[in-house]
Write a structure and sequence with these properties.
Structural class: mainly alpha
Distance between the termini: 59 Å
Number of strands: 0
Order of helices and strands: HHHHHH
Strand content: under 5%
Helix content: over 70%
């Protein structure tokens, strides 16, 4: 197959599978689910014994400065208050929005491989929630590792006698 035939075939498949619409749907659903996840995560961190200023310093290094300036007071407020109602609400909203994002991914993969969805609606929702919980656990462990990395690194340097 020549290169021009391959390019034409790819363009036709792109149009046939409606890739741009699926990509837009997935991007929207994932971005839409990020904010409830962030609220849930910061509310959870507020229940553990972590200095809110340390979290703000870490987030300041990770976020663009314009975004950090806009949300830093909200983040500080979430970290300082232990609101069980907000935690429950954000968890339910997170389950809804994130499962929509994973359902969009499943729908996109089904269309890309030209498969029909044979599972029932509730089973699809359950599977998308399980995937969302798995990704959430991995992300939460990653955040904990980021917080603990400095302490682990300092103890390692002290143990091996390496000082800067």
């Amino acid at each position: 197959m020549r290169l021009t035939q391959y390019v034409i075939k790819m363009i036709l498949r792109y149009k046939h599978h409606n890739i741009s619409a699926l990509a837009s749907q997935m991007a929207f659903d994932m971005v839409f689910s990020f904010f409830p996840f962030l609220i849930f995560l910061l509310t959870m961190v507020g229940f553990i014994n972590v200095n809110p200023r340390d979290v703000l310093i870490l987030l300041e290094n990770m976020m663009p400065s314009e975004l950090y300036n806009n949300v830093s007071t909200l983040i500080l407020q979430l970290l300082q208050t232990r609101n069980g109602n907000l935690l429950s609400f954000s968890l339910v909203f997170l389950l809804y929005t994130a499962s929509r994002g994973f359902r969009a991914i499943m729908n996109g993969l089904n269309q890309a491989y030209e498969e029909k969805e044979t599972r029932g609606f509730l089973k699809v929702i359950f599977i998308s929630i399980i995937f969302m919980i798995g990704v959430g656990v991995v992300f939460f462990l990653f955040i904990i590792l980021l917080f603990l990395w400095e302490k682990i690194n300092a103890k390692k340097k002290k143990f091996f006698g390496v000082y800067k």
